[in-house]
Amino acid sequence: MVARPRFYTLLPSHYCVCIDRALAYKGIAVERVNVPYHDKRQLLRETGQDYAPALKWGRRVIPWYEIPKFLDRVQPSPPLFPPGLEGLAGLIEGWAHDVLEERIWRAVVTEVPPYLGDDFERWTFEEMQTRVRGPWHVQRARRAEFRRALQPYFGMVEALLTDRDWVLGVPSIGDFGLYGGMWAWFLVGRPVPRAFPRVAAWAERIRRLKPRRR
User: Fold this and answer.
1) Chain segment 98-114, per-residue pLDDT in tens
2) Are 24 and 209 in contact (CB under 8 A)?
3) 20 to 30 Å CA-CA from 131: which of 24, 53, 105, 142?
4) What CATH fold (topology level) applies to the domain 86-207?
5) SS (H, E, C) 122-171
């Protein structure tokens, strides 16, 4: 393994959190490079592309969409795609990023700015989200509606955890994708609703994963 890979990560990003937890699960210690929401200059200069997460492994830059399978190639154990469950793990991860994350995001997006680095980053975030989602005050006014709409999605993950600690029975990229999909909810300090105790316990297990010291 290279001495210490560099991991470029963006605080609100569900993909970044997914990879962060995957690295911790594999016990891979990295040098973290935090990418501001509004400033990708260092990321561009050091990786040649403008999307986080990115992983610099020696002289090689691994883009976000290749990182999970790359990690399984360079460090097969423990696997992110368990043998015989590769397709299901990838399917769950895709659903987490493409479906679950958006339901979570719209419920908390107006609460994210205080967690960003400075006023300019907060202003940029609000401006970009307003362009995509409409007036900020309307998004804020609809938060209760969006939170109510989340309950079935928490329920889906709760059902996946019936009689098991991990959604496929063993840890996988499916778990880390789901956790990433929920990340904005945790970022703004919201607990898992009481109706979903298995989700709460599962999220705590993932949160506590730490890379081994090298």
Assistant:
1) 999 999 999 999 999 99
2) yes
3) 53
4) Glutathione S-transferase Yfyf (Class Pi); Chain A, domain 2 (1.20.1050)
5) HHHHHHHHHHHHCCHHHHHHCHHHHHHHHHHHHHHHHHHCCCCCCCCCCC
